[in-house]
Amino acid sequence: MLTAIRTDTRTHFVDDTRYAKKKCLLFFICLIPFLTSSVIAGWNDPVHFDSENLKMAVEDELGIYDPTEGDMQWLTSITHKECMDSGDIMDAKDCDKAITSLSGLGYAHNLESVDFHLNKITSIAPLRNLTMLKDVRLGRNYILDLGPLKDLTKLRYLDVHGNGLSDLSPLSGLTNLQTLKLRWNNISDVSPLSGLSKLTNLYINGNELSDISPLSGLSSLTELYIYNNNVSDISALSGMNDLRFISALNNQISNISALAGLSKLSELYLERNDFSDISPLANLTNLTRLDVRYNPLNPQACDIYPQIIANNPGLVYFKYDPCLSQYGLTISSSSGGSVTTPGEGVFGYENETTVSVTATAQSNSHFVNWTGTAANAGKIANPGSPSITITVDGNYTLRATFVEDQSGSPSVSTYQAQNVGETSARLEAYLGDYGEEDCDGWFVYWIKGHQTQTEQSTSRLYALHESELYVTEVNNLLPGTTYNYQAVAENSYGLVRGNVREFMTLEDVIHVDDDAASDPAPTNLLISDPQEDGTTSHPYDSIQEAIEHAQDLDKIAVHEGRYYETLNLMGKRLDIRGANPGASDIAAYPVIDAKQEGTVVTFNHGENPECMLSGLVLTGGLHDTSGAIACIGASPTIKNCLIVGNRSTGPAGAIVYGENSHSLFENLTVHGNVSEASGSAFRFTDSDALIVNSILWNHELREIAVASGHNPLVTYCDVQ
Length: 720
Prior knowledge:
Elements (H helix, E strand, L loop, with lengths): L1 E6 L3 E5 H15 L6 H7 L8 H11 L14 E3 L33 E3 L19 E3 L19 E3 L19 E3 L19 E3 L19 E3 L19 E3 L19 E3 L19 E3 L9 H11 L5 E3 L7 E7 L3 E5 L3 E5 L3 E9 L3 E7 L1 H4 L10 E6 L3 E9 L6 E4 L10 E8 L6 E9 L3 H4 L1 E2 L3 E4 L3 E7 L7 E10 L2 E11 L4 E4 L30 H7 L5 E4 L3 E3 L2 E2 L6 E3 L13 E3 L7 E3 L8 E3 L2 E3 L2 E2 L2 E7 L4 E3 L2 E3 L2 E2 L5 E6 L4 E3 L2 E3 L2 E2 L4 E8 L2 E3 L2 E3 L4 E8 L3 E3 L2 E2 L1
Parallel strand pairs: 3-4, 4-5, 5-6, 6-7, 7-8, 8-9, 9-10, 10-11, 11-12, 12-13, 14-20, 29-30, 30-33, 31-34, 32-35, 33-36, 34-37, 35-39, 36-40, 37-41, 38-42, 39-43, 40-44, 41-45, 42-46, 43-47, 44-48, 45-49, 47-50, 48-51, 49-52
Antiparallel strand pairs: 1-2, 14-16, 15-17, 17-19, 18-20, 21-22, 22-26, 23-24, 23-25, 23-27, 27-28
C-alpha cells in the first residue's frame, strides 16, 4: 500500500516496507545495551539541513519526509543534478534548485556514492567522516578545499572538475583511486598524485601544468588527458605501458620519444604542439586515431608517414599527411599599383609555407585592400595593410586593389567581414574623403540573390574623416546563410558605394558526410577535405572528428553513408542525428560500422539525457561486454536506431550494456546480434534504464539481463 504524505511541487510516497525497515533498525538499536540514552534519543530526531534542496534530494532518495538520524543510515547513494536543466551548464549561480550546503549529510554513515554535479557547494566538510564513500562527483561547484576527503581511503572515483582548485595535497593518501577528474581548475602541482598507483583514468586538462614528472610512477594509467596546459616534457610517460589513450593537444611538447614504447596506444591526440620528429610513432601497431596537426614537422615525416599507415591497419583517423604536393598562389593587382614582393603571377609553395607579400601604389593612387580566395578564407590577418604574410596550405588567389586619389566625392572600400558568427558579423570599410571632413558612412546588406526583398541598412556614422576605418556590428542574421554587403559613404559632393563582398554565417548544425563533393577521397577517413569545418560545403568526413570539434549542446547531422569508426561522446551533451525519425526507408539511415574493432558507441564520461543519438544503424561491434553500446556512469538518450550485426564475446556480455546508468532507449530495433555463453541483448548493472516502444528479437539468447540493481522499466515493447 502506498500512502501520500506530502503534496507541494513534488508528491512523496512512503512504502510500508520502509516503515518495516525502520522498525527493524530501531529494534536492533534497542538490543545494544551499551548505547547511551542520548544517542538513542537523537536517533529519532529529524536531521537539520541548511539547504532545503539537499533535504528534498534526501527525501526523494529515501522515500520519506523529515528523515531522522536513523533514517539516514539507509542512504547509500544520492544524486542531485537539477541545475543541468537550467540552461547554463557551466555555472549554477542562477539556479534556484542548487544545493548550497552539505550540512546534514554527515549522518549518512553508509553513504557510498554522491553525485552533486553543478550546484553551489562551497564546503565539503560534512563528508569528512563518511568513510564508506567510494564514488564522489562534485564537478562545477565552488569548492576550494579538498581537506575533508583526505581520510576517505575507499574512494575509487572522484570528479571535482571546474571548481577553481589548486591544492591537491589532501588526495595523496587516497591510494584506491582509479578515476580522477581534475580538469578546468587552477592546478600547477601534481606531486600529491605521485603515489596513486591504482589510477587508470586521469583528467587534468585545462589547468596550469608545466611539469608532469610526478606522474611517472602511475604505471596503471590507461587514459590520460593533459591537453590545454603548458607541458613541454612528457618523458614521464615512457614507462606507462598500459596507456591506450592520450590527449595532449595545445601544449608545448617538443619531443615525443617517450611514446615510442607505448605499444598499447590506440588513440593519440598531439595537435598544436612544438615537435618536429614523428619517428617515435613509427613502430606503434595499435593506433586507431592519430592527430599531429599544426606541429613543425621535419621533411623526414614524409618517409615515416607511410610506415605509420602500414604498421597500424586499424588506423581510421590520421590528421594529417605532411607530404601533400605543392600549392599554387596566384597574385595580381588592379590599376594604380602592383605587387612588388614576391611579384605577380603563379607561385608554387610547399604545404604550410609562410609567404611575405607587399603591394606598392603608384603616385596619385593609394592601396585599398587585398581580395581573392585567400582573403575570403581568412588567411590574411589585416586585408587593409599593404604588407602581409600568408600561410599557404591550399590553392589561393590574391589581388591587390588600388584607387586613384581624387577630390570631391569620397571613396570607400568594403573590407572582408570579421567575427562572423551564427547570427552576427562585424562589417568594416575604409574611407577616403578628399572633398571635406564632414562625411557619413554606413553599410547595406542583404541575403545573396534576394537583394530587393531583404536589403537592410545600418545606422549612419557621422563626421568621418579622411583615411579612416569604420566598423559596424550587424545582428539578428540567419544561421548558415550567405549575405552580400557593401560600404556606402556620402558628403556634400555626392554618394558613393564600395565594392560588394559576401560572408556566410555559421551554421547551428555541424555536418558529417563521408562522400561530400569537397572530399578528395570519399569514404576514406585518412584523406579529408583540407577545408573541412563542419559546414554543408565542407563537412567533416568522420563523426568522431565532429564530436571532437563540437561544443557542448551542439547538433551534429550525419548524412547518408557508411562510417567505419567507433565513437566516444567524450562527456559532451550533443544531439547526433542521422535519418529523419519518420523516414520509412531504412537505407536512408547512416551506418556506423565498427569493423569488429570495439564497441560501436561508448558513453563513459558522465553523459546525461541531453546527449542524444538517433536515426542511425549501429553494426560491426565486437567487444567482451558491450558489442554495440556501452553506457558506463552515463545516462544518454538513444532513439530511432537499428542495432544489428554486433557481437559480445564475454561470458556475461551484451549488445547494449549499462552500468550505473539511467539511459533511455526508445524506438529501437535490436535484431540479429550475437552474445556468447550466458550473454544477452541488454544487460544492466546497478542501473535504472527505460526501454520504450522497442523491438528486441531473434538473438537466441536472453533479451534483457540484470546483474545487480533494479530491473529496467520496459513499456510498449515487443520482446521475443
